[in-house]
From TrEMBL:
It comes from the Bacteria. This is DUF1062 domain-containing protein. InterPro entries: DUF1062. Pfam families: DUF1062.
Length: 193
C-alpha cells in the first residue's frame, strides 16, 4: 500500500492572553505576554518571572517561572536565554496553559494560528495527514480537519461516523491536536490537490 502523506504544521501566531484581576482597572481584565522575562539575582539566589501586561493600562503581572533558586542550579545556557529574553523560551512558558490556569482566572487559548502545508508525497486513494504542532493550545482535531479539508465541522463529524478517518495514536475527533498526530483519510485524495 502506498501512502499519500502530507504534513501540516500548526504555527501559533501569538501567545495566549490570560484573565486576571488588575489593581489599576479594579476589575478582572485581560493580560498579554510582554515577551520579556524579569530576572532578579540576590547574591546567588535567582528569581525569574515572565511579565504580562494589562491590555487597558500599565498594570503588570509577573508570572513566576523560577523561585529562590541557587544560580549554580540553573543551566548556564538556559540562564542566558532568560537574560536575553529568548523568544523560544518565552513561548515555551507562555504555552504552559495548565500552569497558567492555576495562577489566573482563565487562559484565552483561542489564539490565531496558521496551518502550513509542508510536503506531499506519492498519490494513492488513501491519504495521510501528519500534524506537526509545537505548542499545545487546546486546538480540537475536528476543527483543524475541517480547516485543512475546507469542509464544515458537521461534514467532518459525518465523515467520522462513516469511519473515513483513521487516527494514530488512537484518540477521539474531539480530542486536542497533539504533535505528530497522523490522520489517514480513506478514499478522499481530492482534498490534497
Ligand atoms: Zn489594567
Amino acid at each position: 500500500m502506498s501512502l499519500n502523506a502530507v504534513t501540516y504544521e500548526i504555527v501559533a501566531q501569538e501567545t495566549p492572553n490570560v484573565i486576571r484581576n488588575c489593581r489599576n482597572c479594579k476589575r478582572s481584565t485581560e493580560y498579554f505576554c510582554s515577551d520579556k522575562f524579569r530576572v532578579n539575582a540576590n547574591q546567588k539566589i535567582v528569581d525569574i518571572w515572565l511579565i504580562y501586561k494589562c491590555i487597558h493600562c500599565e498594570g503588570t503581572w509577573n508570572c513566576p517561572i523560577l523561585s529562590r533558586l541557587n544560580v549554580n542550579r540553573i543551566d548556564p545556557i538556559l540562564h542566558q536565554k532568560y537574560m536575553n529574553n529568548d523568544k523560544e523560551t518565552i513561548w515555551h512558558h507562555a504555552f504552559q496553559i495548565s500552569k497558567l490556569r492555576k495562577l489566573c482566572d482563565a487562559v484565552k487559548n483561542d489564539i490565531n494560528y496558521e496551518v502550513r502545508k509542508e510536503k506531499s508525497e506519492s498519490v494513492s486513494d488513501e491519504a495521510t495527514i501528519r500534524i506537526c504542532c509545537k505548542y499545545d493550545f487546546g486546538l480540537r482535531i475536528d476543527k483543524l480537519l475541517a480547516e485543512i479539508l475546507d469542509i464544515s465541522r458537521s461534514k467532518v463529524s459525518k465523515m467520522a461516523k462513516e469511519e473515513t478517518f483513521l487516527l494514530y495514536p488512537t484518540v477521539s475527533m474531539k480530542d486536542k491536536v497533539i504533535d505528530d498526530l497522523q490522520i489517514t483519510v480513506k478514499g478522499n485524495r481530492r482534498v490534497f490537490g
